[in-house]
Amino acid sequence: MNTRAIGADKEETACRYLGANGVRIRERNFRCRQGEIDIIGDDGAFLVFFEVKYRKDNSKGSAAEAVNYNKQTKICRVCDYYRMLRHCPDTTPIRFDVVAIDGDRITWHKNAFYYHGR
Known about the structure:
single chain, alpha+beta, Trna Endonuclease, Chain: A, domain 1, 2 helices, 30% helix
């Protein structure tokens, strides 16, 4: 299985996990010139932008550690574009979460990072 297929499989796993935990998925793989967001969903009152990361082992660090400052900044830029495109009110509470999959273990990091931008 190539890395793209593995990534798609892990994103599907993350969607099932989030759905089972009450998240309503709005979109998957939202792309624009600024980049991509893996999953966008609603968790209670929050509009949540999810980054899914997978590591088969910790030889290159944990999955969550892969969401560095540069990746966070890119996600925030895509978030801005998404909110503008979908006419989301500025008062809509947003959150940035990471679904880390290390081997077979899934960890949902709520509020994994804060908004960088504007």
